[in-house]
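Lab notebook, bench 4. Still working through the backlog of constructs that have no structural model yet. Next entry is a single chain of 192 residues. Request: give me the structure tokens for it.
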Amino acid sequence: MTELIVHEGHDGWLFLTGGTNFVTTLYERNGGHLPDVNLRRWRDAIIERKHRCDALGVAYAHLVAPEKLTIYGHKQATPLVNVDLAPAIRLQQLFAGAAHAAGWVDLVWPMRERRDEVELYWRSDTHWTPDGSLLAYRLLCEALQLTPNAELANRPCNTIHRIMDLGGKFDPPRWEQIREIDWIADARRIYA
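Model written out:
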């Protein structure tokens, strides 16, 4: 059953392919679980939100967390999807060159540019590593014209071995060495 929902790629990279997320169907323009017709409605909602926020004098940014295959598709052992049909890429294209004006924060290209320098996703999980989180955080701050907290990169961390989500679907499970960061040290909630 594992082979139906987890793809074992090159260099130990594991990718979610099925399950309740229907991941591989997200890379289809006219079918699957996120066709272009649905993305057009999403685009229209983003534009409307941006207009409403502008009218209120509120900064607005829209960030889409790209699916792991979108960033590390070159690690597929066999082609599962056309990574250039990723929902985040297709949605950005629907803005017809005006994505930035709509508050769009692109993560795909900056992540693809850095993916071979540092691991932005865990190899055996679908989530970002601390480096992936920090990259997204910096890009979001830039879009909102906020100064990022430079101390976040220096937060205390623990390096441990853990069975992550996708690694746990194998028998025996796949362990991965990860860094856990204390992100909330000195954090406080501010109500505006």
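Notes after review: The longest helix spans residues 36-56. The two ends are 49 Å apart (CA to CA). Flag for follow-up if needed.
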